[in-house]
């Protein structure tokens, strides 16, 4: 702090500098291509079919810092037919992978609930891997009015 600078001016300047650094770091975001590559790492060369997954997520999110998400997969969850894993991907957060959960027939229900952060308005995609090796998906476009993840984590 220089001699002619008041404490208030110093604090305001420091905060403004921090905000500029935060927003420039926010430019490190995943892209739709990176999301597709992350999905390919999970499914390999398998065909991903639409269906069997229900996404319960608000279409309009006021605050991207906490977005509720419920995923239900249509499965009897028996030893012969169950959901092995559920993965969620996004196209604009710093990382394209939101979550990956592994299940088994003893889970009882193929339903998960979580909260996550969204950096901006974007598409999310959930993919479920079934015990027979098939992959199923569902997607939803979410409109975010106040973005999260701007710190570039």
Q: How many structural domains in the coordinates?
A: 1
Class per helix and strand makeup? alpha+beta
Name of the top-level CATH class: Mainly Beta
Helix content: 10-25%
Count of helical stretches: 2
Portion in beta strands: 35-45%
Radius of gyration: 20 Å
Question: How is the topology of this model organized?
Answer:
Layout: H1 7-25, H2 32-43, E1 48-50, E2 53-56, E3 60-61, E4 67-73, E5 83-90, E6 97-102, E7 111-116, E8 122-130, E9 135-144
Parallel strand pairs: 1-9, 3-9
Antiparallel strand pairs: 2-4, 4-7, 5-6, 5-8, 8-9
Explain how this protein is built.
The protein is an alpha+beta fold and 153 residues long. The chain has a single domain (29-144), classed as Immunoglobulin-like, CATH 2.60.40. The protein has helices spanning 7-25, 32-43; strands at residues 48-50, 53-56, 60-61, 67-73, 83-90, 97-102, 111-116, 122-130, 135-144. A hairpin with a 4-residue loop joins strand 8 (122-130) and strand 9. The radius of gyration is 20 Å and the shape is elongated. The chain starts with 6 loop residues before the first helix and ends in a 9-residue tail after the last strand. Residues 17-27 have low confidence and may be disordered.
């Amino acid at each position: 702090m220089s001699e002619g600078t008041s404490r208030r001016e110093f604090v305001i300047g420091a905060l403004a500098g921090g905000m500029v650094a935060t927003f420039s770091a926010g430019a490190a975001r995943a892209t739709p291509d990176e999301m597709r590559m992350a999905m390919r790492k999970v499914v390999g060369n398998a065909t991903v079919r639409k269906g069997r997954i229900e996404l319960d997520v608000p279409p309009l999110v006021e605050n991207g810092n906490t977005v509720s998400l419920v995923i239900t997969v249509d499965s009897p969850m028996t030893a012969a037919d169950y959901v092995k894993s559920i993965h969620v991907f996004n196209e604009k957060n710093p990382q394209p992978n939101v979550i990956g959960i592994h299940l088994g027939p003893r889970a009882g229900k193929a339903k998960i609930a979580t909260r996550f952060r969204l950096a901006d308005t974007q598409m999310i995609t959930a993919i479920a891997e079934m015990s027979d090796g098939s992959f199923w998906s569902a997607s939803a476009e979410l409109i975010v009015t106040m973005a999260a993840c701007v710190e570039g984590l």
